[in-house]
Amino acid sequence: MKANLSGNSIINTYAINNYSKLKLSLFFLPLFFLVAVVLFLYKHDALNTENYILIQKDCFLFINSKLSQFPNTIYNLTQLGDCLISFSLLTLFIICAPKIWESLLSASLVSCVFSTILKKLFAVPRPALAFDNSPFFIIGKTLCGNNSLPSGHSITIFTTFTVLLFSFMPKKLDYKILWIFFIITTAFSLALTRVGIGAHYPLDVFIGGIFGFISGLLGIFITRKYKIWDWISNKKYYPVFIVLFLICCISLIIRITHENLIIYYFSIASLVVSLYKITTVYVKK
User: Which residues cross the membrane (predicted)?
Assistant: First the structure.
């Protein structure tokens, strides 16, 4: 019983074994896509803010009009790009697979650096600023800053899904292909909700996804080389997580009072289960 709740659980061991097999050549794919995006923008004379927005206008309006037909669904799904939501849904892994959380924390710090620096570097105005004379749908709060590129939510989504992608990568080739297809498709669909709610352009999402994938990989490689998060699996630190889980629950309850979204209830439910599990393990130590 103890083995299933410790850092040596089957899930944790499986993730560790998968991480050990990863090679640096995996970075070639996202770098290829980044170069492809730059060449595409260069070809269309869109390496400046004005044309970057202009060449995406029709695509943005089309995707926005289609996805906005399901406002409640996409507004709930887009919350998965919020660390509070995505992390809350994954809290049980702290107990049964701490290595996943070690990689996720390292990856999230990298993604935060990418998002902060790139948004300030490019300073692209949001659709609400750029298309003020063009009708499109905005769901939720209107975002009007000059921080559209890249999409932070997309970076978070792809960072999280990349860690999960390699954590649970199947061994058989046919299952591996299906798993990769499922993860990438799901992550990209969730990221596209940022266009659906009128917060980002399509390339913001695509570029954010690339940097999210890079962040996820870097998080895994950093954790594999440096043992900075090993304390996560140590039960004596569980009270720290218990307090954090309670704070997250309170934060979500406050959010519910402002926006009664079903995704918040799922997050709270996950936190409550994790809180019960981690408290039980700590008391029985």
Answer: 24-42, 74-97, 104-122, 151-170, 177-199, 205-224, 236-256, 262-283
pLDDT at 2 over 90: no
- 81 three-state secondary structure: helix
Q: With 0-12 CB in 10 A as exposed, 13-18 as middle and 19+ as buried, what is 63?
A: buried
Is the pTM value of this prediction over 0.90? yes
Chain centroid, CA 235 distance in Å: 27
68 CB-near residues (< 8 Å, 6+ apart) = 74, 136, 137, 139, 196, 197, 198
256 Cβ contact list (under 8 Å, min separation 6): 264, 265
**Structure tokens of 135?**
């009708």
d(CA 178, CA 52): 34
Give the model confidence (pLDDT) of 69-122 as tens digits. 999 999 999 999 999 999 999 999 999 999 999 999 999 999 999 999 999 999
The chain-wide mean pLDDT, for the chain, equals 95
Q: How far apart are CA 57 and CA 61, in angstroms?
A: 6
Does residue 238 contact residue 278 with C-beta atoms inside 8 Å?
yes
Amino acid present at 143: L
* Tally: H helices and E strands in the chain: 15, 0
* Pairwise CA distance, residues 274 & 89, whole Å: 9
Domain boundaries, the chain: 2-75+94-233
Question: What is the C-alpha to C-alpha distance for residues 58 and 54, in angstroms, rounded to an integer?
Answer: 8
Answer yes or no: are the C-beta atoms of 153 and 194 closer than 8 Å. yes
User: In the chain, at which residue ranges do the beta strands (DSSP E only) sit?
Assistant: none
**Which pLDDT tens digit goes with each residue over 210-245?**
999 999 999 999 999 999 999 999 999 999 999 999
